[in-house]
Amino acid sequence: MDVRILGGLSVRENGVSITPTAAAPRQLLALLAASADQVVPASVLMEEMWPSGAPRGARVELHSHVLGLRNLIGAALPGGRTGAPADGRTAETVLAAQSGGYRLDTGGGSHDVWQFERAAGAGYRAMEAGDLQRAALRLGEALALWRGEPYAGVDAGPRLRAEAERLEASRLSVLDQWIEAQLGLGRHVEMVPELAVLAARHPADESLHGQFMVALLRSGRADDALEAYRRLCAGLQRDGGREPSARLRRLHRSVLTVRGSGLPRVPAQATGGWVRPRPAPVMAGILV
After folding, report:
1. Count of alpha carbons within 13 angstroms of residue 133, beta-carbon side
2. Is the pLDDT of residue 284 over 80?
3. What is the DSSP string of 13-34?
4. Which residue has the higher pLDDT, 170 or 283?
5. pLDDT at position 261, please?
6. Cβ–Cβ under 8 Å, residues 248 and 210
């Protein structure tokens, strides 16, 4: 089974899509795919699908959606719904009823969230070891798995929304570390256009703006770095009347010093790193 969550939901069995078009079974499949290879209690599934309270007959309706998904799975299996595939996978084993819930069995297949976490973990370890080349490569691989917003096209309830928020937080952390690796490798000029787009999309993100200012400054563009700081201040004011952190203010003073000295760019040690604290790794089961 091939599961894709980091963008529009896509689940394929034996190369055939088993992703329903109807909203309710699509939502059910999304939550099962989020916790693939784990049992999801029926009560959890019903809380997601009926957050205001399950109506009378909710279990019957849930079972009806499960049967619909099994029909799609069965049609995708070798031999069809009534065949006897050599690997023993049937619709009832792929979407199995277990311990008062249901389990979506990937059969050892692929899952983009698992791939994202493995690549991100390797990138983080490389950063900690000071191997910026490998860090940039593996973190870039993790980011390349994203095709859009997680669970795009799914009518998400409270659990899937929380899942999507956690995944997005993890992506932003990986993005931050990837930028740090690129800047650490001296790719300041190359990073300026991408950081300009990111800063515009996240006008109150201090970490991104700090990285943008560093890239501009080390590219000999002190005036542009000061303008980026001004835009950040405006964004923070709109975002609850906040002020830049002491760290951003120190960077701002460094920019002013460099501009006043007439130096073409700032030494790396004058700006320091701009590392966003990483959240704990997001497990499957739970754009800029």
Report:
1. 0
2. no
3. ETTEE---SSHHHHHHHHHHHH
4. 170
5. 76
6. yes
Interstrand relation of 110-111 and 101-104 (parallel, antiparallel or unpaired): unpaired
CB-based contact 96:107 (threshold 8 Å): no
Q: Which residue has the tokens 């998904």?
A: 69
DSSP symbols for 90-127? -HHHHEEEETTEEEE--TT-EEHHHHHHHHHHHHHHHH
Q: Is the pLDDT of residue 1 over 70?
A: yes
Contacts of 51 (CB under 8 A, 6+ apart): 157, 158
Token digits for 233? 């201040």
**Measured torsion, CA atoms of residues 217, 222, 225, 227, in degrees rounded to the nearest 10:** -170
Strand order in the sheet with 101-104: 39-41, 101-104, 95-98
Per-residue pLDDT at 280: 39
Average per-residue pLDDT for the chain: 89
pLDDT, position 78: 85
When pLDDT is averaged across residues 19-25 and rounded to a whole number, the result is 95
279 touches 170 (CB < 8 A): yes
Q: How far apart are CA 131 and CA 127, in angstroms?
A: 6
Contact 213, 225 (CB under 8 A): yes
